[in-house]
Specification:
The complex is a heterodimer.
Chain A: H1 4-14, E1 24-29, E2 32-37, E3 42-46, E4 52-57, E5 62-72, E6 78-87, E7 92-102, E8 109-119, E9 124-134, E10 141-143, E11 146-151, E12 156-165, E13 169-178, E14 183-192, E15 197-206, E16 211-221, E17 226-235, E18 239-249, E19 254-263, E20 268-277, H2 281-288, H3 294-305
Parallel strand pairs in A: 1-5, 4-6, 5-7, 6-8, 7-9, 8-10, 8-11, 9-12, 10-13, 11-13, 12-14, 13-15, 14-16, 15-17, 16-18, 17-19, 18-20
Antiparallel strand pairs in A: 1-2, 3-4
Helix pairs in contact in A: 2-3
Chain B: E1 2-13, E2 16-28, E3 33-37, H1 44-52, E4 59-64, E5 67-68, H2 74-79, E6 82-85, H3 97-105, H4 112-118, H5 123-126, H6 137-149, E7 155-159, H7 167-183, E8 187-191, H8 195-198, E9 203-208, E10 211-216, H9 218-227
Parallel strand pairs in B: 3-8, 3-9, 6-7, 7-8
Antiparallel strand pairs in B: 1-2, 1-4, 4-5, 9-10
Helix pairs in contact in B: 3-6
The chains are: A mainly beta, B alpha/beta.
The structure holds adenosine-5'-triphosphate and magnesium ion.
Adenosine-5'-triphosphate binds near residues 20, 42, 44, 45 and 46 of chain B.
Chain lengths: ~300, ~240
């Protein structure tokens, strides 16, 4: 059912070799759900009013995974999808999302994934989202994900967002609100090259007492690409927040990083750090003195940085 | 095996030109251990960087096994089996100790655990640690040395390997240098201020103000030091190396 291009995309974004045999999943290809499986605890239900699915995780579900990859290989199509995740209290699950685009033609292809998460009390979620683009066409590969997360008391969400190849244009908009004792960890990895552009906006509302958030963003901008980061931690209670934005800039690229912290409570402790710089010269010299060529040394440093 | 002929290195800045290394000529032989010492800022590290190719001489010539390497890129020199352990090792995000040692070894089969042990580190605790700023100065320094031990070299340059290393590990390290010297054909050039290391030397090269001040054997050198045991301030200081 999947052709070779589909398989390459699926492997890149979900690390799946084929349609999985076990666990809950939904595979969306060129704007249509092509394969879906629910489990006893994880029900995947198509929406009736708009494109997309509801993913309902029963309270107390432990150790299960959900895969919801999207692959796009049709010419010049833009796919919009609305997915809602309802995570029951005390559940502990891993969600692997991601989108792969293969564009071999001259018209733009894009995917706008609009995800909304409702995380129940004490629930733990690890959310992995990989974006990947390929194809020789002149048409752009565009991904604009919007992610809204509502976290109830003492829940924990770990988000890993990776986009390191082939996406021409992206605006990533993430908005999270945290109730008492909720904990959020976001790791973002981004690489752009050529004339690609990427923008990441992350807004975190620390509404609850003892809520905490940590955002770690690392990016590499090559050639003539452009990146813009806009992050805002808003402390409205006794809470802790930390933003760390680190970028390596190369060639004629441009990076702007605007981490912002806003305190609306005197017990909010918020830190932001942002650094943009070239690859450190002594790192290159060290690896070259071990026998690596300049290109290999550069590659090794960037791979490590984006790991 | 290594020959420096009238090598100079000059920096140019707002204040004009400064000669850091001045007309240095030096010959190192196979299977010998050289300790390079001298006052801070004398040009020792600069000399090592010139040999590794991290910087290019302003004038003069460098020959390695008879081949002119004066303008040879770093990578090529590394392939000729020259290695340099940095005085201040760089850190890397996302690269762990095992990966760095494996990179360093290239084709050569290595036992990372043994290498770490040779520099006085308990391998189990370090092998999967990231090479980032989470490592202490002394730990980083020892891993740097291990990355040179991992390689198959003809000429190994170590820049103050003792710096920041505790007494116990230092003992272990000195034994490692001694063993390397006795068991391989490698030429070792160790920049150091430590008597323990000087004791291993076949020759001691004193670099001062960018020039070779003297080349002596260790007995003459260390003997002359004991004579200067008390420091200029009239107190008796801990025995060290003074000039
Ligand atoms: N890139 C540079 N630009 C300007 N001055 C430099 C540069 N590199 C080295 N120097 C100067 O050259 C001199 C020699 O430096 P070098 O690092 O070789 O000294 P060293 O003998 O290794 O000293 P130490 O024992 O403190 O390590 C110093 O005065 C230093 O400030
Ligand atoms: Mg030095």
């Amino acid at each position: 059912m999947l052709d070779i291009i589909d398989k390459v995309l699926l492997k890149a974004v979900a690390n799946l070799d084929d349609i999985p045999k076990l666990g809950a999943y939904n595979i969306r290809r060129n704007g249509k759900g092509i394969s879906r499986q629910s489990t006893k605890n994880i029900q995947i239900v198509p929406k009736t009013d708009q494109p997309g699915i509801d993913i309902n995780v029963a309270p107390g579900t432990k150790g299960e995974q959900v895969h919801i990859p999207v692959i796009l290989s049709a010419e010049g199509m833009t796919d919009i999808v609305y997915n809602t995740f309802n995570i029951g209290d005390n559940a502990d699950v891993v969600i692997v999302a991601g989108c792969g685009i293969h564009n071999a033609c001259d018209a733009d292809a894009g995917h706008n994934g609009i995800h909304e998460f409702f995380i129940g009390k004490n629930a733990r979620v690890k959310y992995v989202e990989k974006h990947f683009g390929e194809g020789s066409g002149r048409g752009k590969r565009i991904l604009n994900p919007t992610t809204k997360v509502h976290m109830e008391e003492n829940s924990q969400v770990e988000m890993e967002m990776v986009q390191i190849a082939g996406v021409d244009d992206t605006i990533r908009d993430t908005d999270v609100d945290l109730a008492d004792g909720a904990r959020l960890i976001v790791t973002e990895r981004l690489m752009t090259e050529g004339v690609q552009s990427a923008e990441s906006i992350i807004k975190v509302n620390l509404n609850g007492k003892d809520s905490s958030a940590r955002i770690m963003s690392r990016s590499v901008a090559k050639n003539n690409s452009k990146q813009h980061f806009h992050m805002n931690l808003i402390g409205k209670n006794e809470c802790r927040g930390h933003i760390q934005c680190d970028s390596i800039i190369m060639d004629q690229a441009q990076v702007s990083s605007a981490p912002m912290v806003t305190a609306e409570h005197s017990d909010a402790q918020l830190i932001h750090e942002a650094a943009i710089g070239k690859i450190a010269g002594d790192q290159l010299l060290k690896l070259m003195s071990l026998g690596l060529s300049e290109e290999a040394a550069e590659d090794t440093i960037l791979k490590g940085f984006l790991k | 095996m290594l020959e420096l002929k009238n090598v100079s290195w000059t920096v140019e800045d707002n204040h004009g030109r400064t000669d850091i290394v001045k007309n240095v000529s030096l010959t190192l032989h196979e299977h010998k251990l050289y300790v390079v010492t001298g006052p801070n800022g004398g040009g020792k590290s600069t000399l090592a960087k010139l040999v590794m190719g991290l910087i290019a001489p302003s004038s003069g010539q460098i020959l390695f096994d008879g081949v002119d390497i004066t303008h040879m890129p770093i990578t090529e020199r590394a392939k000729l089996q020259i290695g340099y352990a940095f005085q201040t090792p760089p850190v890397f995000k996302g690269i762990n100790v095992r990966e760095l040692l494996t990179l360093a070894a290239g084709e050569k089969k290595i036992n990372p655990t043994q290498l770490l042990f040779d520099v006085g580190l308990c391998a189990g605790e370090y092998i999967n640690r990231e090479m980032d700023s989470g490592l202490s100065g002394g730990e980083l320094k020892r891993i740097e040395i291990a990355s040179i031990l991992a390689r198959d070299l003809k000429l190994a340059l170590f820049d103050e390997p003792e710096a920041g290393i505790d007494l116990w590990s230092f003992q272990r390290l000195a034994e490692t240098f001694d063993k390397m010297h006795r068991q391989s054909e490698m030429t070792l050039m160790i920049i150091s201020h430590q008597e323990r290391i000087m004791h291993l030397a076949d020759e001691i090269i004193v670099i001062d103000s960018g020039k070779v001040r003297e080349i002596t054997d260790k007995n003459t050198f260390l003997g002359s030091l004991t004579l200067k045991e008390s420091c200029g301030c009239g107190e008796t200081c801990e025995r060290g190396v003074s000039f």
